[in-house]
Automatic annotation (TrEMBL):
It comes from the Bacteria. Signal peptide: none annotated. InterPro entries: ScpB_csome_segregation, WH-like_DNA-bd_sf, WH_DNA-bd_sf. Keywords: Cell cycle, Cell division, Chromosome partition, Cytoplasm. It comes from Pedobacter changchengzhani. Gene3D superfamilies: Winged helix-like DNA-binding domain superfamily/Winged helix DNA-binding domain. One of its GO terms (biological process) is chromosome separation. This is SMC-Scp complex subunit ScpB.
Amino acid sequence: MPQSELTKHIEALIFSSVQSISVQEIILALTAALSKEVIENQVFEGIDYLQKKYADDDFAIELVNLNNGYQFLTKKDYHETVNQLQLHRSKKKLSQAAMETLAIIAYRQPITKLEIEQIRGVNSDYSVQRLLEKELISINGKAETPGRPILYCTSSLFMDYFGLNNITQLPQLKDLAKDENTVGMPEE
């Protein structure tokens, strides 16, 4: 099969995937669908072609490497337009409590529910349950402490949703602090 035809299959797989799709998943799907072994270099060649193709200003989308996979996303110039649509369709917003819980899990993972509750100062059962239902967090085993409490961490959907390749890309406190938000006189 010519590379151009294989690239169309790769494009179809990435387009139809709800979440980012890894190179290995692409290889498995293509090998099964085409009844022919597909090698990694062929997939990377197709991805490279697609990234160059969608980098053109004629397209409102681009092919992005996210969470060790690939996904089509809207270019930044169109985020506000798409955001307006999402706001109208959004019926499943996260509450303030759920957002706080998600932030704690993201920065302190893996973490137990008791540790989350100690940080927030309130019961977090409902928030943790909602985040699990929305698949923004996942269970990451059990702690080696008495009672063996469940450990929670962020999911790959969280990584896709926030456009991260790994958790180290989360903003750090020093990145968010601004001089106008400080109280008192600066130290000399």
